[in-house]
Write a structure and sequence with these properties.
Elements: E1 4-8, H1 10-15, H2 31-37, E2 41-47, H3 54-74, E3 79-81, H4 85-93, E4 97-104, H5 113-121, E5 124-128, H6 152-164, E6 167-169, H7 175-184, E7 190-194, H8 208-216, E8 220-223, H9 227-230, H10 250-264, E9 269-271, H11 292-300, H12 305-321
Parallel strand pairs: 1-2, 2-4, 3-4, 4-5, 5-6, 7-8, 8-9
Bound molecules: zinc ion.
Length: 324
């Protein structure tokens, strides 16, 4: 079975100096662990902190991209870039794990179509419109509601991304932004990492009407393994300064996936861990090496192999191919 993770913050760790070619003890993701995990591919996000000015954001995105390209090239016996199903399967046939590229925070685009096109040419296949603050494109779910959804620039960007074939990612955006994107986008969209509001009230999670809205237009909502998204028991939990409490059971992740499937159908759900962007995970999933536990868990909940295959990669790959 092919497994494609919709969101991993590996490039942030790379630019801080971590060598992903090494089998680093105690980390969530590196190339040797990916190989051992049986995972087929992962979207590595060029993550742009909201605090960076737009020019700084662009420079930081390209700096991460260069370091990512350097590390992938240096480990061509383990990994290779992919942009779609075909390239992923070709890599897999050679025993290589596929690295897809995303951009997390459209601030780096500078509102310029040329930057969007350049990133697409470099292999970037989704752009998360914002991060933790409102930006020039749209409101964040953790912002102040500057625009009431998409800005005029954001509305223009939706059209440009549709034309170019870049997937629009609405993780981190406000609910009004998701509604605006659903009203404008003529292509299916993605929500690459988060969970369900019905089971945990964290602002980053999606309400059922938007899960349904995304899936009914052919899109995909990808479930995370981050404790704060999984249960309100972790409201106020500081991921950087843990208080020693036990992490949520893997069953909580399965609960969110089951709920998303109940709302969206099995064609509308995917996996988006947020590895390396978080310090804590649900129990058992501390390393990508144990990702098979998630698949086993879904089997134990009664999902068939073909249903799990859809969630594990096919739904996200379908959203990517639908952009053409
Ligand atoms: Zn994120």
């Amino acid at each position: 079975m092919n497994i494609l993770d919709a969101h991993c913050d590996a490039p942030t760790q790379m630019i801080r100096g971590r060598d992903f070619g090494a089998d680093n003890p105690g980390v969530q993701v590196d190339f040797p662990k990916m190989l051992r995990s049986g995972i087929t591919g992962s979207f590595f996000a060029l993550y742009i902190p909201a605090r960076l000015s737009n020019e700084e954001a662009t420079a930081y995105a390209f700096a991460q991209l260069e370091e990512l390209k350097r590390q992938v090239a240096a480990n061509s016996d383990k990994v290779a870039f992919a942009t779609d199903r075909e390239s992923m399967l070709e890599n897999a046939s050679k025993g290589l794990v596929s690295i897809f590229i995303g951009l997390e925070n459209g601030s780096a685009l500078l509102g310029r179509r040329g930057v969007l096109e350049e990133l697409y040419a470099e292999g970037v296949r989704y752009v998360t419109l914002c991060h933790s603050e409102d930006n020039d494109i749209c409101d964040s779910c953790t912002g102040f509601g500057r625009w009431g959804g998409l800005s005029p620039l954001g509305r223009k960007l939706v059209g440009e991304m549709n034309e170019l074939g870049m997937v629009i990612d609405v993780a981190h955006t406000s609910n009004d932004t998701v509604r605006d994107v659903l009203g404008l986008s003529v292509k299916p969209i993605a929500y690459t990492h988060g969970c369900c509001s019905s089971l945990c009230s964290h602002k980053r999670n999606l309400p059922d009407d938007l899960i349904r809205g995304i899936s009914s237009r052919g899109g995909v909502v990808c479930m995370s393994i981050y404790p704060c998204f999984l249960s309100d028991d972790y409201a106020g939990f500081d991921d950087d300064n843990p208080d020693g409490r036990a992490m949520p059971e893997l069953a909580k992740v399965l609960d969110h996936i089951e709920h998303a499937v109940a709302v969206a159908g099995v064609e509308g759900v995917g996996f988006g861990t947020d590895y390396e962007g978080i310090n804590h995970t649900a129990k058992g999933l501390e390393s990508i090496e144990n990702f098979g536990l998630l698949v086993d868990g879904l089997k134990s909940r009664g999902f068939s192999a073909s249903e799990i295959a859809k969630m594990a990669s096919e739904n996200l790959l379908r959203v990517i191919s639908a952009q053409k």
